[in-house]
Amino acid sequence: MPTPAVAEKAEARAAELRETLERWNYQYHVLDQPSVPDAEYDRALRELQMLEAQHPSLLRPDSPTRRVGAEPLAAFASVRHEQPMLSLDNAFSDEEFEQFYRRVLDRLGTPEAALDFACEPKLDGVAVSLLYRAGALVRAATRGDGTTGEDITDNVATIRSVPLRLRGSGYPAELEVRGEVYMLHEGFAQLNREAAARGEKGFVNPRNAAAGSLRQLDSRVTAQRPLQLCCYGVGQVSGGTLPDNHWKLMQRLHDWGLRINSESALVTGIDGCFDYYRRLEARRADLPYAIDGIVYKVNDLALRGRLGYVARAPRWAIARKFPAEEELTRLLAVEFQVGRTGAITPVARLEPVFVGGVTVSNATLHNLDEVERLGVLVGDTVIVRRAGDVIPQLVSVVAERRPEDATPIVPPTACPVCGSAVEREEGGAVLRCLGGLVCPAQRMAALRHFASRRAMDIDGLGDKLVEQLVKRGLVETVDDLYGLRRDDLRTLDRMGEKSADNLLAALEKSKLTTLPRFLYALGIREVGEATARSLANAFGSYEALAEASEERLLAVDDVGPVVADHLRQFFDDCATQAVVRALRKAGVHWSEIEATADRAPLAGQTWVVTGKLERMTREEAGAALQALGARVAGSVSAKTHTLVAGPGAGSKLAKAEALEVPIIDEAAFLAMLDEHGEHA
């Protein structure tokens, strides 16, 4: 056992090494101004490792030695995001961006204003959330589905551009930072060279390499990967205040030791946005990392609060995508696939070609109108691209290369799956199978949708299992899922006793749902999540919605004549209503919602919830408020009706006090809910 003097000396030296290494890290990875050779850094790191090995009491969670990784995990734990990590809407042309810009001005009621926008490259990486408490990194998580991600703290701690402790002072007691993990082209190339030298298969592109590195159960593997982090915003904040605009906020994050993108800029008006796009597009190929576009964000945070969100994206930001990469290839064949609504989609089978970082062998042709517009024949040489760098599609035909044996694409006269009759709607582009539930393809697609995470969330009911259930005749309609028995499941491929029990438990758990989820799960044409929520809030119960007239349906936000017609067809169909009755008989249930139409007590009011509530989550509080007709916002403004503040409320509470917005605590909030029949 070391003497007190030796221990004291070791502690002082370890503290000195930690401070020195983190300073060098900051200079190298955040400022891009390395001050010592790599060999000097490595010597200091090894000395600290030796001291911590000799004196275990010196181990600290923010030690630079965490960069080398920890013991492997058995699995990643789940993390629920206090504020959802939303996606961004895309604009693929100047016209689409201009439409976004005009929508923003119209919503703000300032049609002639020249707004400030914070602009930054859209890195082609993986979104992550970093949670700092008292300046120390305590958790890192993937985006996941936006609501729930995976705990990857040990892996993120190995990334040297991630500060394990924030620099300086003045940061909130709790600060959630959001950013993108990515690889530089140089690091990616070196990683693949090393893999080739070991006789291993390399990664296809830097994004796949970054994603695979972050999901290693052994963080020591992650530590060997050349990952970078660049921050682009914040999520949950409490116990402190932040600047009132995005540009200043990002500078503050940089002061605290977090890397931000040096290509970012603050511009004014639509012309400033266009100029920034042209400048960055011209330099895209010269950047040391992959980008697939530009992100524009309204700079003023108060204006963002007024603009709000749609179902999965903010109204105050958009991703302006660069033109997709294009390549020549040959159309080998066209197959027709059937979706859950019976829509028959032509799919191009291509001679494999490398486009936008991936090998493409299939591309969508969308519908028959698109086939006719392109004038494409089987055997043609075509230009294929990845629209938005995501979905491969055919752009045009190289007519001069058409071979003599090229053949026309012939639409099917019967469903390619079930043989049922098909029809093309008058004036429409979509060919549709009329087989309904007789068609296995429609049944499988409907089952996959019903079981999906944002619908009934039946864990373990994947595509291959759905296919087996349908092909073996065990499931025809979604209600049949709740009649499955263990003996039925045990006959399926790769389905052991434990797997069968897990699926049955997931089915039982899914029976308790919400009306919006249930409506979305039913797969009514044109009814997405946002529309399902609007319908549930407007009518309160399934029965009231099912009996609503077309005129009454048209009065609901997000419902136009086409959606209203689809809804009435669905509710007037005896077969679909029999399925709904069977689902409810099987035990599928939800709490009725107090309809917001006509008599909602909080209609027209905007509420904000902040801090930690003890009796419910903020998401549950928001749902209760929406059930009473309120709009729930993410930030406080002069239009906020009431702020619900729990322990740990920070900048929102301070802003509410400054604006003299009424503030209530959790007890008063619960009393208000009880008064209106909404129980916690």
UniProtKB/TrEMBL annotation:
Q: Kindly give the SMART domains that the UniProt entry links to this protein.
A: BRCT, HhH1, LIGANc
Q: Which domain of life is it from?
A: Bacteria
GO terms under cellular component: cytosol
Q: What class of enzyme is it?
A: ligase
Please give the start and end residues of each transmembrane region. none
Q: GO biological process: any one?
A: DNA replication
Cofactor(s) recorded for this entry are: Mg(2+); Mn(2+)
State where NAD(+) binds.
38-42, 87-88, 120, 143, 180, 297, 321
* Active-site annotation: 122
Q: Where does Zn(2+) bind?
A: 415, 418, 439
EC numbers listed for it are: 6.5.1.2
Instruction: Kindly state which reaction or reactions the protein catalyses.
Output: NAD(+) + (deoxyribonucleotide)n-3'-hydroxyl + 5'-phospho-(deoxyribonucleotide)m = (deoxyribonucleotide)n+m + AMP + beta-nicotinamide D-nucleotide
Record keywords, A-Z: DNA damage, DNA repair, DNA replication, Ligase, Magnesium, Manganese, Metal-binding, NAD, Zinc
Q: What residue stretches are annotated with the BRCT domain?
A: 597-666
One GO MF term on file is: DNA binding
What the entry lists under Gene3D superfamilies is as follows: 5' to 3' exonuclease, C-terminal subdomain (1.10.150.20), 6.20.10.30, BRCT domain (3.40.50.10190), DNA ligase/mRNA capping enzyme (3.30.470.30), Helix hairpin bin (1.10.287.610), Nucleic acid-binding proteins (2.40.50.140)
InterPro entries according to UniProt: BRCT_dom, BRCT_dom_sf, DisA/LigA_HHH, DNA_ligase, DNA_ligase_AS, DNA_ligase_CS, DNAligase_adenylation, DNAligase_N
The entry's family comment says: Belongs to the NAD-dependent DNA ligase family. LigA subfamily.
Q: What does this protein do?
A: DNA ligase that catalyzes the formation of phosphodiester linkages between 5'-phosphoryl and 3'-hydroxyl groups in double-stranded DNA using NAD as a coenzyme and as the energy source for the reaction. It is essential for DNA replication and repair of damaged DNA.
Q: What is this protein called?
A: DNA ligase
Tell me which species this is from.
Answer: Pseudohaliea rubra DSM 19751
